[in-house]
Amino acid sequence: MNITDVRVRKVAKEGKMKAVVSVTIDDEFVVHDIKVIEGEKGLFIAMPSRKASDGEYRDIAHPINSATREQIQTIILDKYQEVMAEEAENEVLMEAAE
User: Fold this and answer.
1) Which of 44, 45, 71, 93 has the fewest CB atoms in 10 Å of its CB?
2) Angle, CA of 10, 16 and 22, to the nearest 5°
3) Which residues, in sequence order, are CB contacts of 47 under 8 Å at separation 6+?
C-alpha cells in the first residue's frame, strides 16, 4: 500500500481538531475526513467515524494493524507539519512585504 497523495485542510476555529485530511492510496482509493487532533501527548489522527444508534462513535474506515496505522499517521502528520511550516513562512513573507 502506497499513500500517493495527502491533502490537508486546516480547521479555522480554535480547538483540539487542527485539520481534516484526505489520503489517496495507490492513486486508486481515497479516504476523506481523517482528523488531525492535538492531544495531551501531541498530535494524532482519528479515522473517519459516525455516531451509532447507541451514541458511540465507530470508525468507518481504519487500518487493520498498528503498523499500518503508524505508517499512515506518520505520513499525515509529516504533511500537516509541512503545510503549517509553509503557511507560517507565507505569513512572514506577507508581513515583510507590508
Assistant:
1) 93
2) 40
3) 31, 34, 59, 60, 61, 62, 63
CATH of region 1-95: 3.30.1120.40
Task: Report d(CA 85, CA 88) in Å as an integer.
Answer: 5
Specify the amino acid at residue 34: I
DSSP secondary structure letter of residue 52: -
How far apart (Å, rounded) are the C-alpha atoms in residues 25 and 74?
15
SS3 at position 95: helix
Say which amino acid occupies 25: I
Q: Please say if the pLDDT value at position 64 is more than 70.
A: yes
The residue extents of the domains of the chain are 1-95
Q: How many CB atoms lie within 10 A of CB 77?
A: 18
The pTM score is: 0.86
SS3 percent helix, strand, coil of the chain, rounded to 5, is 35, 40, 30
